[in-house]
Amino acid sequence: QTTARTTRISGRAQSLWLPLQRSSRCACQIRGVGACSSTKNQWLHTAMALPLDKLNKLLRTAALGVEVVQTATKGRGIVATRAHRAGAAVVPAGEPLAHSSKRAVNAFAGHGDFSAYERAWRKARGKLEDNDGRRHPLLVAQIASRVAHEPEASPYVLAVAALCSAKMSGPTPAPWREDCAAVKRALGDDDSRYAFLTDEWYAGVASRIHLNSLRADAEGDTVALYALPSFLNHHWEPNLLVDYGDDDVVFRAARPVKEGDELTIDYIHGLPQEERSAYLMENYGFDEASEIDS
User: In this structure, are residues 164 and 187 in contact, taking their beta carbons and an 8 Å threshold?
Assistant: First the structure.
C-alpha cells in the first residue's frame, strides 16, 4: 500500500502528493478499427483508435503543454510539448467520465439532455446501491445512462470509446452477464433508449473501467474514470506524481520535465521488484525488469 505523505505544493498546505495507484491498465493499446463515428450498439464493443489530431483536440492538450502521441513500443502515450518545472501541474485529471460517488458527471456536457441523464442515473444508482453497491456496475450504469441521452458521436461518447480496452474472445464472462442484467433492470428493461446495452456492450465498458480507472482520493474511498490521464504509460521511475487536492486530482512533475519527454506514472508503487514483475505481467501484460536491465 502507498503511504501518504504531506507537502506544500503551489501554496497548498497539507496537500497529499502520492505515487499513483491504478485499478488496472492493459498492456494492449488501441488499434485502428475505422472512423470516429459509430452507433451506440457498437462503439464500445472493440477498441477505437480516434485519430490523434482529433483526440488531442477533444482533450484540449495543446493548452496544457502536452500531446497524446503514438510511442515506439507502448502504443499511445503522452509527451510534454514544453518544459515543466518540478512540482508544476502538468496533467490535470479534469472532470471524470464516471465517478463512484453519488454525483452526476458533467465532462463534455452540453451535447445531450443532461437533466434526463441525471434523473435516470439517480434512479439506477438507488436500485444498484440497494443491491450490493459494487463500484463497477455503478460506473457502467452511469456511463450507460449518459450515453442514452447523448448524440451518437458526442464528445463524451468518443472520449470513453477512445480509452484502452481489453481484447476479449469467446462469450462475455458470467459475472459480467449477471451485472449487465442488474444494470438493465436498474435502468429500465422496457426503455428502448437502452437497447444498446447488450452483454458485449457491457463487457466493452467494464473492460475500460477495469483498465483505466484511478483512485479519486488519497484514502482510496472513490474511483473515477478520467479521459487524458488514461493515456499515461508506466515507468519504474515516473516523472509524474499525483496530487490529491480538496476538489481535484492533478499530476505534477516529480522532477524537471523537458520538451519531448514522455510523461509516465508508476502503476504499482510500493511493491518489491520480484512482486512488481509478477503483478505487472499478470495485470498489464509486460515485465518492467527487462526494461530496467536494458
Answer: no
- 176 three-class SS: helix
Rounded Cα gap, residues 132 and 138, in angstroms: 10
The pLDDT-based confidence of 149 (bands split at 50, 70, 90) is: very high
Closest CA to 238 of 59, 17, 30: 17
pLDDT tens per residue, range 45-91: 555 678 999 999 999 999 999 999 999 888 899 999 999 999 999 99
Question: What Rg value do the Cα atoms of the chain yield, rounded?
Answer: 19
Distances (CA, A) of 65 to 55, 93, 172, 263: 15, 14, 40, 11
* 256, 86 Cβ separation under 8 angstroms: yes
Quote the pLDDT of residue 68: 96
Strand 89-92 and strand 12-18: the pairing is unpaired
Query: pTM of the entire structure?
Result: 0.82
